[in-house]
């Protein structure tokens, strides 16, 4: 029983930690977009991924949101 309680406790806090990453990643993308030298196609793609990440975050799908937001950041970094 203790094992199950500890496992549930760990899962709860892991989910909360992932949920906290989303706003930080969105903010980082927004800041980088202000100074990044991107072609219009890449910029549109990064913005679309960022918006998708925000939507997933609002739906409570934090792990998916983090994945999409990191993809946006990688796309931006590889284009710079």
Shape: elongated
The beta-strand count equals 0
Number of domains: 1
Average pLDDT metric: 84
- What is the overall number of helices? 3
For the record, give the distance between the C-alpha atoms at the N and C termini, rounded to a whole number.
52 Å
Instruction: Return residue spans where pLDDT drops below 50 for at least 5 consecutive residues.
Output: none
Helix-strand sequence: HHH
Helical percentage: over 70%
Estimate what percentage of residues fall within beta strands. under 5%
User: From the alpha-carbon coordinates, what is the Rg to the nearest angstrom?
Assistant: 16 Å
Described by strand count, sense and barrel closure, the largest sheet is: none
Structural class: mainly alpha
Sum this structure up briefly.
The chain is mostly helical and 80 residues long. The chain is built from 3 helices and no strands.
Q: What topology emerges from the helices and strands here?
A:
Elements: H1 2-35, H2 40-58, H3 62-79
Helix pairs in contact: 1-2, 1-3, 2-3
């Amino acid at each position: 029983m203790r094992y199950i309680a500890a496992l549930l406790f760990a899962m709860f806090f892991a989910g909360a930690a992932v949920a906290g990453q989303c706003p930080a990643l969105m903010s980082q993308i927004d800041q980088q977009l202000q100074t990044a030298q991107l072609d219009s196609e890449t910029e549109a793609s990064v913005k679309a991924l960022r918006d998708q990440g925000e939507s997933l975050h609002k739906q409570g799908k934090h792990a998916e949101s983090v994945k999409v937001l990191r993809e946006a950041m990688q796309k931006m970094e590889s284009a710079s």
